[in-house]
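Build the 3D complex.
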Amino acid sequence: MIFQATFFYYFSDGEATSLPFAGKTTMIKCNKCGEVDAIAKSGIVRGKQRYHCKRCDYYFTQPSLLTPETHHQRRHQTTIMDIASALQISKSTVSRALQGHSDINENTRKAVLDMAHQLDYQPNLLALGLAKSRSYTIGIIVPEFINSFFPYIIIGAQQVANPAGYHVIICQSNESLETEIANTNVLMASRVDGVVASVTAETKSLDHFQKFQRAGIPLVMFNRICDGLDVSKVLVDDYDGAYRGVEHLIQQGCTRIAHLAGPQNLQVGKQRLRGYLDALRDYNLPVYDELIVYCNLTKTSAQAAARQLLDLPTPPDSIFGVNDPAAIQTILIAKSKGISIPNDLAIVGFSNEPTSALIEPGLTTLAQPLDEIGKTTVQFLLNEIEDDTILPQTEILKTQLIVRASSLRRR
Amino acid sequence: MIFQATFFYYFSDGEATSLPFAGKTTMIKCNKCGEVDAIAKSGIVRGKQRYHCKRCDYYFTQPSLLTPETHHQRRHQTTIMDIASALQISKSTVSRALQGHSDINENTRKAVLDMAHQLDYQPNLLALGLAKSRSYTIGIIVPEFINSFFPYIIIGAQQVANPAGYHVIICQSNESLETEIANTNVLMASRVDGVVASVTAETKSLDHFQKFQRAGIPLVMFNRICDGLDVSKVLVDDYDGAYRGVEHLIQQGCTRIAHLAGPQNLQVGKQRLRGYLDALRDYNLPVYDELIVYCNLTKTSAQAAARQLLDLPTPPDSIFGVNDPAAIQTILIAKSKGISIPNDLAIVGFSNEPTSALIEPGLTTLAQPLDEIGKTTVQFLLNEIEDDTILPQTEILKTQLIVRASSLRRR
DNA sequence: AAAATTATTGAAAACGATTGAAATCGCGTT
DNA sequence: AACGCGATTTCAATCGTTTTCAATAATTTT
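Done.
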């Protein structure tokens, strides 16, 4: 009452109201003492009007009036709390019942499980991950998945990861280093528990993968690796496969064997080249520099390389391609040039893409145990996740030579 | 001192200690009154020894002594708090600085950004999602990704989703309904902001997709849809494509045209069959029931269907396959039987798989704008995520007939 | 039947971010 | 020198779970 005299503290906010008097004066109540009269505007905070209560000398702003409706976001999925309040028990009990904790009364557990089912409860993986500091998610980085090579590996990977309770985030980098780096960041941010990766053809440094190591996130590389990181690896015996592929060409009577080689920053590229060279050497065949051309695993660069080989003054009598897609492009170009396969040109690829069996002539190639690569890789990773004292290990799987018409010369 | 007499309350925990006296007695101090002498073991709670203080009649257990070291889990990624304490400011300030909030001092912001970079800060998406009730993640469910059809769509999808700030979780169901259902659950649990899906060939009911609708999570179906759900859809004009494919066969002089049809629970299956029937009708060709056989889109069932057609007493002079993989299997079987393509048997597929251009003879087919399907689908989804008043809409994209040797008869 | 144990349940503090509201810091004005 | 006010910054509550420790109920032992 005393303060009613301080009339100048009244103010109008300009909004029409339905108050019986004045018709345009909104009362502001002090958040602390409840005073209504001795309130004055006092500046702006973060775009909101601030008030000052003279009585209790208190600055405040008007709380935004959010109804419980407004406040709760429109999308609401049932939580552990919903179950708890439906059952009039604490959320700890619900949590324990759901987790299958041993010291929960059987009846309680049953009730909780029933209610969870009834309310269609799905645990919030975000909250779970936050609480446990584990996401139960592993990341897979592959350079592409247009060819069926990596998809098959991914399927194998999922077959191991899912039963173990892990989800999989698939990232494909489109053979772009930049995207690959972005992918590593996404996986870091997603707090994956581990990562398996096969790098792009243009990846030369593994700096962006060291993030994982620094953060203590296990990493396993497969298939396409490059040097400089002390991690577990799952590979196929590229050297051996290449050797046997070239040996096969030699046995077919080829002597001028070319190699459509892969990028040398990748072990696959290096090892397959090495196998090629050693096979030639062991069989006392000369190595011609002009018969070794490189590609970066893209379709266009493979085509260019193939053309370069076939346009040589003295073209090769056979080509060992770094992988099937490259070999297939070679077949197409040879055919378009009217070169007869395998008699004028025998061809061997690497990895046994499904297409290689369909094309004509069928492509001789080295099959890789894709499923097994995926499974082994993830198994290594899970071991490291569960027990971080494990030392990096390397598994090398064997390839299998599949002979088809592209290299089989009639004697 | 008084309580020193109650000697029997002392106990030994069996561990050797370096106490000057006794050499094997660990003192337990009451958590409430600090008493050391009048403490007795009193049962086990959750596997931990419980004690009882005689003096204040209080039951308690020994708090596990976690050093800050032990407590922090071995894997630690930098958090907003790390930045805050490094800079001696509050975490709210850091958060606002990182978000680019306007009312942050420029120097502060710069310092925060620097420190964030220096500490290699990556926001914890789990925490972020929890706080904002949005995961900034969308889920993609596809039946398979061995063929390059879905991978191309996924790439298109990512090209729209990523720039918009969304990550993508890819789930493949391996054409198994059970896996598809599991996938929907994973996506629900991951609190994705939206889902785009293409169902398996065996999916007849969409009950498991209603979860999303109930939870208010936008859903857009593409390509393989089935009836019964009021959602946005992105399709190609299967009817039109089929009609034109069959029309092309008719124009090549075929009169006994068979259809290796897809499952009729899917719209693709239905519409392509309808287009086939209408084309025959419009050109006054008879429809023979025996010339329509169904497959479930797997390789083996496609092979069985193809065999069934080719083994008929009066085999067809041409086959319109529900998709390229089915048509390719048909080609292979026909070739193995010595049937000449296209003269004895003309073949048309649907979807223009890369393989279709490589096989011999090249497969005539209807190309779908895969990239565009992916982009449009995700665009629809993003619209619904941002603004949930949007009504379901349907986009139908055109196909393009690509004529290759498998159907081109010399006149 | 009191005491000791065991079996269950509850309360509260993390986890790492966002965000509404309050608190401080300066600096011209009275 | 106190005020008024904008510019920043800090505080504290939340999001949905887990998990530690305490509390209460039930059951055995003395």
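The longest helix of chain A spans residues 370-386.
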